[in-house]
Amino acid sequence: MADFLKDPLSLFTVRDKAAVVTGASGAFGALAAKVLAGAGAKVTAVAGNADALAATAQECRDLGGEVLEIKGRPDSEAACADIVARTVAQFGRLDILVVASGKNDVAKISDMAPERFLDVMDANVTQSWLMARAATQQMLKQGEGGKIVLMSSARGLLGHPAGYTAYCASKSAVDGITKALGCELGPTGITVNAIAPTVFRSPLTAWMFEDTENAQAVRKGFLARVPKGRLGEPSDLAGPLLFLASAASDFYTGHILYADGGYTAG
After folding, report:
1. H or E stretch including 58?
2. Among this protein's residues, is 167 annotated catalytic?
3. 98 to 33, 196, 250, 261: CA distances (angstroms)
4. In the predicted model, what is the mean pLDDT of residues 23-44?
């Protein structure tokens, strides 16, 4: 009998793994840090907002996690190298990378300055690539594989009429990085996948969950496209994250995992 059949849940363990989570002050990044910490991983939480970072780190510790806080962003080769180096100095290795940092800037193309478009591309694409590069170099040095999880969106596949050219383009590029790195790193044991949610509850989307007339109208139009009939909750991203960060996904790489209630299926 295969060993995993004696304890199938062991496939999903991340206990004692060393993980880096960028954007740990944001909705998904904070969730990722807490999920991994609660599951027994040692977490380096990275974010530019010191107060929000401290709050996330404390919640991770309350869950029994060991946490290294780094105030900063993966916005240069040096910054990414420093994040990895400090993680290795603290935990001895790097097993999991979750890139949850990024941004959106909504404007019609006729009103958006090129600099604003490039800022979104830098935050979502270049910084994902730089952080993945730094993590890959360390994982290759260790020679034991690893897990890289990038943050995409349903908007990487689908357009949007309300001024999302920068965001859609950036997430399409993240999908491209995911697929290309999945192919490139497949033989090394490093898997590269992305989670692509649609609207889920966060400080930025809280208004859509309200009972106001405007929110109800927007929600009605949106939910007409969602087979599950509801908006996403943070818990809907926890399962996919643990799957992609653990041995359960060892044969999965270059995948975009849509956490969208069926939104992209129809």
Report:
1. helix 50-62
2. yes
3. 9, 13, 16, 22
4. 96
- In the predicted model, is pLDDT for residue 1 greater than 70? no
- Give me the number of domains the chain comprises: 1
Question: Is 210 inside any structural domain?
Answer: no
Nearest-angstrom CA–CA distance, 38 and 13: 11
Structure tokens at 15: 């206990």
d(CA 155, CA 255): 15
The 10 Å Cβ neighbour count of residue 227 is 11
pLDDT at residue 250, rounded to an integer: 97
- Would residue 212 count as lying in a domain? no
- Which structural domain range is residue 128 located in? 3-200+234-261
Does residue 134 lie in a domain region?
Answer: yes
pTM metric for this prediction: 0.95
Any domain includes 213: no
Determine contact, residues 14/39, Cβ cutoff 8 Å. Answer: yes
**Distance in angstroms (rounded) separating the CA atoms of residues 2 and 118:** 50
Residue with tokens 């991994």: 36
- 135/147 Cα distance (integer angstroms): 9
What b/e sequence results for 97-132 when a residue is b if at least 16 CB atoms lie within 10 Å of its CB, and e otherwise? bbbbbbebbeeeeeebeeeebeebbebbbbbbbbbb
Q: Which of 164, 167, 258, 263 is catalytic?
A: 167
CATH number at residue 189: 3.40.50.720
